[in-house]
Design brief:
Strand content: 15-25%
Number of strands: 9
Structural class: alpha/beta
Helix content: 25-40%
Number of helices: 9
Distance between the termini: 27 Å
Shape: globular
Order of helices and strands: EHEEHEHEHEHHEEEHHH
């Protein structure tokens, strides 16, 4: 049996984030990757220079092409850009009754460019998050989604509870933006009953482009293979730590992570 996963997200012409990062990650974890493109970005390590969104109908047609023929074992959503696209994606996910939905609420690029229209935030909360098995916001994204400021571990826990109340089954708040932690980076998982913390050594590097996309893509791939959410997050943490530590120097700005680092370490 071949496990399959689809990423519904934007394209990064620089190859470090978006569907390019997702498909590389799926391949590294031996999951067959498919995609539905929501937007084309003109992007490199220096930033996002232009965004060309797809129509909602174009996104629907791509999803239906997969749904009517191949199907999928897990779904990852990334940059969805507009309320129309979010509504369309949500309807298609319900239509095909796909499970193992991982929502990476992509809002802001590394360089600061907005990747989600303001009016799309309510659509995300009302229509897509209630379908999600896992949501993986970083701290700034969690602040937008919950309307609260997050400065402490207790703040992360409260934000996770608020996101769970929206209808998400599992909430992972990533700690890369945590200003209280200088030596480590801690991600928080809340499954509705318990909190779990996953910590790793913080790496001083500018080559972190696509970390969020890659992290959630690992969770998606592992869920497609039948993993529990907890174990999927454990693998995601190891995968992204290796990807950051084993640096590759590409471009003149925020370079991409090393997607093959985890696999090479396993094979040593």
């Amino acid at each position: 049996m071949i496990e399959k996963a689809i990423t519904i997200a934007g394209s990064d012409s620089g190859g470090g984030a978006g569907i390019q990062a997702d498909l590389k990650t799926f391949q590294e974890l031996e999951v067959f990757g498919m995609s539905a493109l929501t937007a084309v970005t003109a992007q490199n390590t220096l930033g996002v220079h232009a965004v060309y969104p797809m129509t909602a109908e174009a996104v629907i047609q791509q999803i239906q092409a997969i749904g009517e023929d191949i199907g999928t074992d897990a779904v990852k959503t990334g940059m969805l850009f507009s309320a129309d696209i979010i509504d369309a994606v949500s309807e298609q996910l319900k239509k095909y009754q796909w499970k193992n939905i991982v929502v990476d609420p992509v809002m802001i690029a590394k360089g600061g460019a907005s990747l989600l229209q303001q009016e799309a935030i309510s659509a995300l909360k009302n229509h897509l998050l209630p379908l999600a098995e896992v949501v993986t916001p970083n701290i700034p994204e969690a602040e937008v989604l919950t309307g609260m400021e997050i400065r402490t571990t207790e703040g992360k826990m409260e934000a996770a509870k608020r996101l769970y109340e929206i209808g998400v089954k599992n909430v992972v708040i990533k700690g890369g933006h945590d200003k209280d932690e200088f030596e480590s980076s801690s991600d928080l998982l809340f499954d509705g009953k318990e909190f779990f913390t996953f910590s790793s050594k913080r790496v001083d590097t500018k080559n972190t482009h696509g970390t969020g996309c890659t992290f959630s893509a690992v969770i998606t791939a592992e869920l497609a293979k039948g993993s529990t959410v907890h174990n999927a997050v454990v693998i995601a943490k190891k995968f992204i730590q290796a990807a950051i530590e084993d640096q590759i120097e590409i471009g003149h700005g925020h370079g991409p992570t090393n997607h093959w680092a985890y696999g090479k370490r396993k094979n040593i």
